[in-house]
Amino acid sequence: MTDRARTFEDVRRTNLARLLRIVHLEGPQSRARLTAATGLNRSTIADLVAELVSLGVVAELPPAPATRAGRPSPVVAADPAIVAIAANPEVDAITLGAVRLDGTVVVRRRVEVDHLLRPEEAVGMVVDTMAQWRTDELREARPIGVGLAVPGLVRASDGAVRIAPHLGWRDVALRELAESATGLPVAVGNDASLGAIAEHLFGAGRGIDDLVYLNGGASGIGGGVIVGGTLLSGLSGYAGEFGQNRPGIPSTADRRADDGVLEDEVSRARLLAVARLTVADDPTLAAALTERDVPDAAAEIARQRRILATALANAVNVLNPRLIVLGGFLATIATLGEGATDQLLDAVRDQAMPAAAEEVEIRPAALGENRLLIGAAEAAFTTLLDDPVGALRAT
């Protein structure tokens, strides 16, 4: 291939990826809107869309009813058959889902467990669930990858879990293990980092390029930071471990763990205890905490909210975000009770530098219990979105 031909092919593949990403992030688009968004001419857009259709990643739909003169333009949408399989192993359950290229969750399953899952066991549950879904919900689907959201430190270079302390995993070659078992490309990431990406692209942080996301799960508290629209990963991919910071606790009466880290004090297990539950998903826990016969719930939520406010104020001082998004049980802490979110924000502003905190907002995660699945699927879609031709040739 000549240099000129290679350059032409590179430009074409770049434009294919560009169109696919627009449809992926912004939903169905008319050809006319794609032309305006990219600056390419109409015939080029028509050729590129035709190639994406032939690859099976987009579909052309009938044009919307005309509202002005001229021939209506066909609508380009992500092909609903393209899915990623996503999974989030935790200490009390594993949640699995299939996510379409447009970010919608086709099917979701939560399996509660009474023991710590071994890596091989978790991967086996992914394989078994995929096989079940392929005979029913995903009968017409085309899985193109697997995304795993793990509550631990995941090395970006090879998808190895260096340590997931609550699961008891250490130095697990998880991507290699899962690729061998599933026969699909696998992406592995920290659960909170993937949650940050999901909320930034599709949820509470959509359109906001500087945000802090904190995820509260059964394995503690993790975080993700978006700076200038990009995930802050750190040298090896370990950035965002807010739960391991030691919070300032002005009142000794608020302390429950001597020399404990944030996730020892702001804890889902402590909320389950006051709600008299052993295992529950987030909606069940939130509902239980609002029951009138749970007398200690309000006091425990208020205690955890005070400590969380200090941790968030520190994050505001360091990162100056436009938005703080709270997911999992942290969203419960932030929203239970009239005016709770405003009270938390006031407590953060009282402890942060005024200039850094003057524009910050706090919002609960908008994607609810699907946030980590959508984030894991986004990681699995990355190769396809970057180069649809190359990704599909490799599968």
Describe it.
- The chain is an alpha/beta fold and 395 residues long.
- The protein has three domains: 3-78, Orthogonal Bundle (Arc Repressor Mutant, subunit A), CATH 1.10.10.10; 82-194 and 380-394, Nucleotidyltransferase, domain 5 (2-Layer Sandwich), CATH 3.30.420.40; 204-366, Nucleotidyltransferase, domain 5 (2-Layer Sandwich).
- 43% of the residues lie in helices and 22% in strands.
- The protein has helices spanning 3-26, 31-38, 42-55, 119-134, 174-182, 191-202, 262-265, 268-274, 282-289, 297-319, 329-335, 340-351, 354-357, 371-386, 388-394; strands at residues 29-30, 58-61, 75-78, 82-89, 93-100, 105-112, 142-150, 153-155, 160-164, 169-172, 186-190, 211-217, 220-227, 230-231, 323-328, 361-364.
- Strand 5 and strand 6 (105-112) form a beta hairpin.
- Helix 4 runs parallel beside helix 5 (174-182) and helix 10 packs across helix 12.
- Belongs to the ROK (NagC/XylR) family.
- This is ROK family protein.
- InterPro entries: ATPase_NBD, ROK, WH-like_DNA-bd_sf, WH_DNA-bd_sf.
- It holds the Pfam family ROK.
Key terms for this structure?
Arc Repressor Mutant, subunit A, Nucleotidyltransferase, domain 5, 15 helices, 395 residues, five-stranded mixed β-sheet, globular, alpha/beta, 3 domains
Spans of at least 5 consecutive residues with low confidence: none
Provide the residue-averaged pLDDT: 94
Strand neighbour order, sheet with most strands:
6-5-4-7-11
CATH topology of the largest domain: Nucleotidyltransferase, domain 5
Our Rg estimate from Cα atoms comes to 23 Å
Tell me, what is the CATH class of the largest domain? Alpha Beta
What profile does the largest beta sheet have?
5 strands, mixed
* CATH architecture term of the largest domain: 2-Layer Sandwich
Class derived from helix and strand content: alpha/beta
Strand content: 15-25%
Shape: globular
Number of strands: 16
Q: Level of helix content?
A: 40-55%
Count of the separate structural domains: 3
Q: How many separate helices?
A: 15
Q: How far apart, in Å, are the first and last alpha carbons?
A: 24 Å
CATH superfamily of the largest domain: ATPase, nucleotide binding domain
